[in-house]
Amino acid sequence: MKMIVAVVQDKDSNRLTDALSDNNFKTTKLATTGGFLKEGNTTFMIGCEDQYVDEALEIIKKNCSQREQMVAPISPMGGNADSYIPKPVKVEVGGATVFVLPVESFFQF
Length: 109
Ligand code: 2BA
Fold this sequence. Notes:
Layout: E1 2-9, H1 10-22, E2 27-33, E3 40-48, H2 53-63, E4 67-71, E5 89-93, E6 96-102
Antiparallel strand pairs: 1-3, 1-6, 2-3, 4-5
Helix pairs in contact: 1-2
The chain binds ligand 2BA.
Ligand 2BA binds at residues 7, 34-37, 41, 91-94, 97.
């Protein structure tokens, strides 16, 4: 058994939930915050048997889009913040950041 941990953008979260449940995957969603943008994202926990991992990855790939986002950089250390005009820079976010972990045991009581 594997645990798939997938960090996705909030915008893709409902679509991905529906697609996974339509294909009989069981999911738990956590409201999370990205360390870089400090914005909300959604982390899915998907427990499944090994033979279904590829199918789950395909569904995640299909339902999570890559997007560009503008970020305002913080003022440089030691710089004069009054005269500093942050120039937004573009970062590419997503589609999904996925970890596949082995599950040692699984219990439902
Ligand atoms: P954030 O940490 O908010 O990062 C959002 C996007 O900002 C990243 O998109 C990446 O394009 C950019 N970024 C992140 N750290 C950067 C840095 N130090 N310098 C320049 N650009 C940077 P993604 O790579 O698609 O990641 C989307 C979200 O997935 C992340 O949100 C974070 O919540 C999660 N994530 C990504 N890699 C991870 C990892 N190795 N471990 C845990 N969570 C991860």
